Task: inverse folding
């Protein structure tokens, strides 16, 4: 097992300097020294003394949260829960918008580590990118080795505390609702293909299709960007290619709102001409006309639970804790049986 002296020797610094960097001392050091020591920690798989970790955490009051975009209603709801628990615990929350740029997320991890935050919470979807996920996992492990805590929301490669939304179950609920209403010609507006959230929700859709003796062909799935404009564009593509579709499953509510906009502009109605179901149950789902049938995830609660995990006492963090956030169907006005 590597020792502090081994790390110092590998980095070419004194044990005292290595200790200050590893344990998050506020005493300034050059970024070059910090990077060398943390690289040595990673290479040698060095695990610091638990007592030193506790001391390192004691002066850290901020928690870093990396989201795709806090103005997105999905992340706005999650952030409400995060901030509520942080405030209750006297913590400052630093919000970092990555805009689904993996390189920016990696930069934020480094920046938050340099600011010696007490914890980092990843609140966005994981990526289907092995190089990125491996690099991210390594950076987070180095950060944890220096006394930091990590919690994630969603399916990520990093092994640690996590709140995992029931995306596959939710996709299954959405498709099952449409099939049981009598729809068989269904189109899907999915999110970005490189996100694990999209993959998981699509998997649930396909499971329900198979259970009802159907399959949703790739030609009936169009990918968008989890926002209203791309949802409208995707709806136009689907209906142009498959005018006989009687139902659309949009894999988030923002895209469903865009779908409603396109249907209105095209002179078509929901659910009269096309049934439409969303996902997440964002506040906007009750404000549109017709109100949106959707799959509810407890977004604010997911944020609260992730912050609670991130702020667990050091003696309570030996075993990673995985919590599932369940999905439920919410029936409103945008779905009905197909016209005969």
Result:
């Amino acid at each position: 097992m590597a020792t502090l002296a081994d790390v110092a020797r590998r980095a070419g610094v004194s044990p005292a300097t290595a200790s200050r960097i590893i344990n998050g001392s506020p005493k300034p050091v050059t970024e070059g020294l910090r990077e060398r020591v943390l690289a040595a920690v990673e290479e040698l798989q060095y695990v610091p003394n638990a007592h030193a970790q506790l001391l390192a955490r004691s002066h850290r009051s901020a928690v870093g949260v990396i989201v795709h975009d806090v103005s997105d209603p999905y992340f706005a709801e999650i952030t409400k829960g995060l901030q509520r628990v942080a405030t209750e615990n006297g913590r400052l929350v630093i919000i970092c918008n990555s805009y689904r740029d993996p390189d920016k997320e990696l930069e934020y991890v480094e920046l938050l580590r340099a600011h010696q935050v007490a914890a980092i919470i990843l609140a966005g979807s994981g990526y289907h990118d092995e190089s990125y996920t491996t690099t991210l996992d390594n950076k987070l492990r180095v950060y944890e080795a220096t006394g930091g805590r990590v919690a994630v929301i969603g399916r990520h490669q990093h092994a640690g505390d996590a709140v995992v939304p029931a995306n596959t179950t939710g996709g299954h609920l959405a498709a099952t609702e449409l099939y049981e209403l009598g729809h068989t010609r269904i189109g899907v507006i999915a999110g970005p293909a490189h996100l694990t959230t999209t993959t998981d929700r699509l998997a649930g859709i396909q499971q329900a299709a198979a259970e009802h003796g159907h399959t949703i062909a790739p030609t009936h799935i169009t990918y968008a960007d989890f926002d209203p404009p791309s949802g409208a564009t995707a709806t136009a593509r689907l209906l142009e290619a498959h005018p006989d579709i009687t139902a659309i499953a949009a894999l988030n509510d923002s895209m469903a709102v865009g779908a409603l906009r396109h249907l209105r502009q095209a002179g078509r109605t929901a659910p009269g001409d096309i049934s439409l179901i969303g996902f997440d149950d964002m506040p906007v789902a009750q404000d549109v006309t017709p109100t949106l049938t959707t799959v509810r995830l407890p977004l604010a609660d997911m944020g609260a639970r992730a912050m609670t995990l991130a702020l667990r006492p050091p003696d309570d963090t030996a075993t990673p804790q995985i919590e599932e956030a369940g999905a439920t169907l919410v029936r409103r006005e945008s779905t009905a049986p197909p016209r005969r």
Observations:
- The mean pLDDT is 91.
